[in-house]
Amino acid sequence: MRRVTPALVLGMTALLATPFAAQAAPGNGSSNAHTDSFGTKAVYQPEQNSRSYQKVPAGFTPVFTENVSRHGSRSATDSSDGDLILALLDKAQAEGQLTAKGREFGPKAQALEAAMSAVGYGDLSARGKEEIHDTAVRMAKRLPTLFASIAKNKEPIDVVSSGQGRAVDSANLYGAALAQTDPDLTSLIGATRTDKDLLYFHKADGGAAYRDYIANDKRLAATLKAVTDQPATHRAARDVLKKLFKPAFVDRITAGEFASIGTDVEAATAVYNLYAIAPAMSEESPGGKGWGMDRYISARNADWFGYISDAEDFYEKGPSRPAAVLSRRAASSTTSTSWSAASGARTRRADLPRIRYARIPLRHPGDPLRKSVSLSQKVTHFFRPPLPRRQPVSLGRAARFRER
To answer: Which strands sit side by side in the sheet containing 60-70, from one edge to the other?
Structure first.
């Protein structure tokens, strides 16, 4: 009797859980705060040497694989952060209230905004495109016999996206890179098709309850306010602004004199967001040397604002208990089709290798697969504290193996 080893479960667990070992508590002064968080702007990088990947067990052969992933690194969604902080810088400059670093920061922020505008707000950066390409190459190298079999048997490869621009681009780039590893795969890689119910479910009909939770849940609103509007946040905001503005001007921002532009926390968050997006835009920086945004926000303060951003994602998207439950329900089609396709390999039923790209962080529907803390343990409170922060990863490569 032929049996299928549960390699799919083990593969997902390893990819999703390993980074917790390198956790960063808020305020610890980590020098890489923008890469240690769940935040959607964090750049991707391999966490393991490919030579140390787990080998296919003796006596087994890979028969199915699927890549379920988020798009590559991108530019900011819009210019709102740059607009806010540059408006304050202009006012301070007119009054002689900029520090030396403030006079440096303005032109750099303008240059970064110009680079993002040239790329296209919300579109993949050069680094993002490279991330997607390299991910496809790693998959091909990881499963050479599987892709050789696909090419030999002329099995089509199904490519699906959420229909959102950067997700479509990522899916197309992934398919093209896979074809480069073996030209015989080129004609087998299908045109990218859109399935919003599958990969953009929070905006589809099945996500109505989740959207209502985000828009109307008073406990959510109160919790986010409690996380954000605390003394530590205002202290961190003041520290950030003092690097750019003279103390008297910082006092005026804090007092709300420029509330029509932004509060102290909003202004500091804008600085953090530019700092956080800069690594994704490193290839577009002058000479490709980077933007040097770490000069304008300390590691400790960047870590704090990254923590605030992570908390918002935690409570709104999961794995806080209510968000995780709702997103799990909305994502049921994504997870169930993954399992059914992998299970089909057991009976040798024809299952297309799959490439799926989405715009939202897919760690959330992945939570029930890896039995995350918020779902596997009983909780007495509506919300759990934010989890230790780590680099964002996708569900990544998953493979089924059949005994020979």
So the answer is: 4-5, 396-403, 60-70, 354-358, 158-161, 193-194
